[in-house]
Design a protein that fits this description.
With about 750 residues, the chain is of the alpha+beta class. It is built from eleven helices and 41 strands.
Length: about 750
């Protein structure tokens, strides 16, 4: 396909690689290496019929005082009151509770009995509850003195770390990311301990050498983001961030940190991040923000627990903080509907790192970060898609779910390419609208990939499913093998023809806008954008100055690709010789008149598409028509000639070898076999194509003869298609020629 285009001018920049250590790598390694995540306890999906209720609130009480004291046992007593709304009539509910970690002793309130097996806690209710009713069950339980890699106690530290399905190890819950609930947590700890959790600190009550911390989150939380972070003699520093919408409202930012850690720079940085990300993604959505560095058992990067991010010891680096801060919008405010949608967490948070680099160091810094992501992906691509619907049913192994190359780096690069495709205004309108849209069920809720695609299409004003389908739901990336050539048209005019072709076999064709930078012998470079929406697509540019070179994707904005671009030779003249039967003056071995013709190069394989075409003048003495095919590359083609009142005639079977840059000649006049199906007749020593197809329908028949007869009866004259012999008069000679060919059933013969 050849496109003649209207072009727009753009700027391009060359970027160096970013050598900064990247948080998403730490984040991915943390989630990959946590033993808690190596085994999943059940494979029920969020939409499973077993889930007949919606949890509204968890009210948790844990007595963990002894866990801070040597020998730091991991057992504690607790209870949780689960408040839920019934969606389908039920007389029991099922919750996740890992048997090796949790021993349930009793149930009460609406719960009358229970069974606990295979990591499922079934609570039998006091009656059948109908849809819309709200009930509460209270569960008393003990956490065993076991290492389960969700509840940690060591050296004065006590903390939880749950992603993806570890919450079920420290309290009974419906442990799927789509079912978010508010949280009311009270923890009993020693008097020298500080404990942080989600939401706001409602109160802390001191009783002798014991403190009861009472945290309440009025914003719903996914269970994997519910957290306790505590330590004896924890350092705590609190700063405040004024809301842009109402500066009189101050959001506390709580920093829990270890002795010897310096958080001075971090406090300023976090303040600025909250301001900048509020501008980009919508105002910071929670009543508090917080960070807690933990002990040696938390070894990798950070974990984006809602309003209280966990960090490894002394991990106050800028890119760790920016990644986890981004999660407060993408992962916490809007959580994944299923684990198939985890890329909506990690891709967006990884992209947020680049957005922060752009704020602090300009676009070059942003692009360096994106380029580094792309390089890692290209070198480590395991070959599966970002999104796999089966992961919504069966949670995959963590080295798949949290694969650095796919979930983090490829995902962030896809968002960069979406920004490149849409432009900044629409792209950042989308990121904000997606995060802050409560009417569509995103804000303080969960999102599935297809829901986000619909939101993207709404903001973009066009169906963007093509983009998500190819980059998110398909594996791998395109491989471009492009070419271009430059041809002088004479008179100071030039044509540049660019052909883009994708050759990959492990993923479908990827539609994308392409930037092309053209250099000239004089003046500045020009950059054009074209939409590549079919494979093997060509674009032609006409210039009044001489182009010298073309650079494909000069800004490397399609970062997930491999590509080569080859300069081909300039097109050379092609000469096609043929004789229309009616115009041939045999005694003088010439044509009676010069005439216009259409010449084509057609693919030699079905469906025999047009590769190139040109109009030409058929010389009356040499029978030659000379053209330059500007769009054809080297290949095997059929040569097809079309004359205004002759049968369309194709070259002989199999096609002809055409070499770009070399002269090409084809002579129909020398042998009958030069035409496909031997579809010519011999006049004297010359082979001629049949005349008489006045209406160009591929046959000579009574309709054509009738047109000639009508013009003859009206004494028509001049340059008319019914004048087969070119003598300027339509008469019996023309009619006889047509009648004879019709009688012999002359028609086009094609492959």
């Amino acid at each position: 396909m050849l496109c003649l285009i209207t072009v727009s001018f753009l700027c391009s920049t060359v970027f160096a690689q970013n050598n900064l250590q990247k948080e998403q790598h730490f984040c991915s390694l943390k989630k990959l290496n946590s033993p808690n995540l190596s085994v999943q306890f059940d494979s029920d999906s969020p939409n499973s019929p077993l889930h007949k209720f919606d949890v509204l609130d968890y009210k948790i009480y844990v007595d963990i005082r002894s866990c801070f004291i040597s020998p730091y046992p991991k057992n504690f007593n607790g209870n949780v009151t689960v408040k839920f709304r019934v969606d389908t009539a039920l007389n029991s509910i099922q919750l996740n509770a890992v048997n090796t970690s949790i021993v349930v002793s009793s149930v009460s309130m609406a719960g009358v009995s229970f069974s606990h097996a295979s990591n499922i806690l079934t609570v039998n209710l006091d009656r059948t509850y109908n849809p819309g009713e709200i009930a509460e069950v209270k569960i008393n339980y003990t956490h065993q003195n076991v290492t389960d890699n969700a509840f940690y106690a060591s050296g004065g530290f006590v903390f939880t770390d749950c992603e993806p399905e570890g919450a079920r190890k420290w309290f009974p819950c419906w442990d799927k990311p789509s079912d978010k609930a508010t949280l009311d947590l009270t923890a009993r700890v020693p008097g020298n301990a500080r404990l942080g959790s989600n939401g706001r600190l409602n109160d802390s009550t001191v009783t002798g050498d014991t403190i009861y911390y009472h945290w309440i989150s009025s914003d719903p939380i996914a269970t994997y983001l519910m957290v306790m972070s505590a330590k004896a003699n924890y350092n705590l520093n609190i700063t405040y961030w004024p809301r842009p919408s109402n500066p009189s409202i101050l959001v506390p930012i709580r920093f829990y940190y270890n002795s010897g850690e310096n958080i001075t720079a971090t406090k300023t940085r976090v303040y600025n991040m909250m301001t900048h990300m509020s501008e980009k993604f919508g105002e910071y959505p929670f009543e508090k923000n917080g960070f807690a560095t933990l002990g040696s058992q938390f070894t990798w990067g950070g974990m984006e627990n809602q309003t209280l991010t966990s960090l490894c010891t002394n991990c106050w680096s800028e890119n760790i903080i920016s990644h986890e801060m981004g999660h407060q919008w993408y992962g916490d405010l809007v959580s994944p509907a299923t684990w198939a949608d985890i890329w909506l967490n990690e891709a967006f948070a990884t992209f947020t790192e680049a957005v922060w680099f752009e704020y602090t160091g300009g676009y070059t810094s942003y692009k360096n970060d994106i380029n580094a992501n792309a390089t890692y992906y290209l070198n480590n691509n395991p070959g599966w898609p970002i999104y796999n619907p089966q992961w919504a049913v069966t949670t995959p192994p963590t080295n798949t779910l949290f694969n650095t190359a796919i979930t983090y780096y490829k995902g962030a690069c896809v968002l960069h390419m979406l920004r490149y495709t849409l432009g900044d205004s629409i792209f950042f309108s989308f990121t904000k609208s997606y995060a802050m849209d409560s009417l569509s069920g995103f804000k303080h809720n969960s999102a599935a990939t297809d829901d986000v695609t619909e939101k993207l299409s709404e903001v973009a004003g066009q169906d963007m499913s093509w983009f998500i389908n190819q980059w998110v739901k398909e594996p791998n990336h395109p491989t471009y093998q492009n070419n271009y050539n430059i041809t002088s048209l004479g008179g100071g005019n030039w044509r540049l023809r660019f052909t883009t072709n994708q050759t990959q076999v492990n993923t479908p064709f990827h539609k994308m806008p392409l930037n092309l930078k053209v250099s000239f012998t004089t003046g500045s470079d020009s950059t054009f954008r074209v939409m590549n929406d079919v494979n093997n697509q060509s674009f032609a540019f006409n210039f009044t100055r001489q182009p010298t070179a073309l650079v494909f994707d000069p800004g490397n904005d399609i970062v997930l690709k491999t590509a080569s671009t080859t300069l081909l030779p300039s097109a050379a003249a092609s000469t096609i010789k043929f004789i229309p039967q009616g115009l041939y003056d045999q005694p003088n071995d010439r044509l009676r008149i010069r005439d216009t013709v259409s010449l084509y190069l057609m693919n030699s394989i079905s469906p025999y598409a047009i590769v190139d075409s040109a109009f030409a003048i058929l010389d009356s003495n040499s029978f030659s028509s000379t053209v330059t095919f500007l769009n054809a590359v080297s290949g095997v083609y059929y040569v097809v000639v079309k004359h205004r009142n002759s049968i369309e005639t194709w070259s002989n079977a199999g096609g002809e070898v055409y070499t770009l840059g070399s002269t090409f000649t084809y002579d129909f006049t020398t042998a009958q076999t030069q035409a496909y199906g031997n579809n010519m007749l011999l006049i004297g020593s010359r082979y001629c194509i049949y005349s008489g197809d006045i209406n160009q329908d591929g046959v000579v028949d009574a309709t054509d003869a009738g047109a000639i007869d009508n013009d003859a009866a009206n004494y028509a004259s001049g340059y008319l298609s019914t004048d087969l012999n070119g003598d300027g008069a339509i008469d019996a000679t023309d009619l006889a020629l047509a009648d004879n060919n019709a009688a012999n059933f002359v028609g086009a013969i094609t492959p």
